[in-house]
Amino acid sequence: MSTSPATPEHLASDDTTHVPVIVIGGGQAGLSVSWYLGANDIDHLVVEAGTPMHQWSDTRWDNFTLVTPNWHCRLPGYAYQGPDPDGFMTRDEVVEWLRGWLDTFSPPLRTGTRVTRLSHGEDGGYELMTEGEHGPEILTCDEVVVATGGYPVPVVPTFAPTLDPAIRQLHSEEYRNSDQLADGAVLVVGSGQSGAQIAEDLHLEGRSVHLAIGTAPRVARFYRGRDCMTWLADMGLYETPAQQYPGGKAAREKTNHYVTGRDGGRDVDLRAFALEGMSLYGTLTDGRDTGLTFAPTLTSSLDKADSVYNSICADIDAHIAREGIDAPPASRYEPVWRPSTDPETLDLAAAGITTIIWAIGYRPDYRWIEASAFDGGGRPMQTRGVTGVSGLSFIGLPWMHTWGSGRFLGIDDDARHIAETIIDRGRGTAGGLRLAVGS
Description:
Layout: E1 18-24, H1 28-39, E2 44-47, H2 55-58, E3 74-75, E4 78-79, H3 91-102, E5 109-110, E6 113-120, E7 126-132, E8 137-146, E9 153-154, E10 168-171, E11 185-189, H4 193-204, E12 209-212, E13 222-223, E14 226-227, H5 228-234, H6 270-275, E15 279-281, E16 284-288, E17 291-294, H7 298-323, E18 345-347, E19 353-358, E20 362-363, E21 382-383, E22 386-387, E23 392-394, H8 408-424
Parallel strand pairs: 1-2, 1-8, 2-5, 8-23, 10-19, 11-12, 11-19, 12-15
Antiparallel strand pairs: 3-4, 6-7, 7-8, 9-20, 13-14, 16-17, 17-18, 21-22
Helix pairs in contact: 1-8
């Protein structure tokens, strides 16, 4: 993997620290912007706190697989060309695929360098304060692209510190496998993609699992002869701007549907897990010492998730009918288990629970950016990544433009738009963006 290309000339001298464009973050989103800037001879620098795309190996559990089909994996100048386009790469296979992409070009990349403050420069443009192996440094630029990820700060409840210290607590990004946990039962809190799949991982390892579920919807893995996400792609859902969905930009707050690509892909059916011994609860609301309380929402949450599952299938049915597609017959999910009651309390000690895994998401943290570009929730106010603050853009945000944003499927288009915007604003070399696209 090419991680340390030659230092650009403007960084060769201690007296010169100005770079026309700086991309903060060396994940696949930031490097995709770099790919387009480099293809058009735009002088720029990518600044990465760790190593390129390190989160794929550092924050995914051992049995992680993609939940989107491999054919979704496309980046500038590069697309999945393996033998199983309808399969689901494992974590290690994704890391290897990304390494192959990075070997196809040489981004001007500075690793081990964290940006601690981004502010407006005295003479226009931006000033970046950084810290790294060589101590603090100040860089300036005309354009800056923030590619640090959508929501980088793991969320844990405010009451977490009041729980019995004998019970280990970790966030989903710290989970690797069952063996790293102490003997005993495990409580997973959250039923989004990470929570549901980690609960399944532990369940398959024979652990006693308790799962507190939220409002996450679910989707069928396969329906009427194809992967559901392939149907949805054909229907154009991943390319539809967020503003055109019911509720408009509120779509960006939606939790992703839970499903898995493990063992070739299958549904995640929490009701089936309950039949096999997993204990389910509604939304966790409070806790102290070894006692937890839950909202009585288990039944309604399961019913709502199944309703979304069947609604998506119905939308696919309508598409098949409109297009006259020959496909296997339609079907509907029928519950295989129903709770007899909605449990509202749990004694961790009595249940033998020794570990809690928090899988309730992440929150934004842009306090290091001194610019009027954020709403009351601390999220960037942007359109396709471009803010109202001249020269400031974002990339890699969930629902930044479409459902595909923040996924491999939509990164190429989003990065290309950001690069085009930078060139159109005249911050780089003159001329239009060459339409060199991957896949």
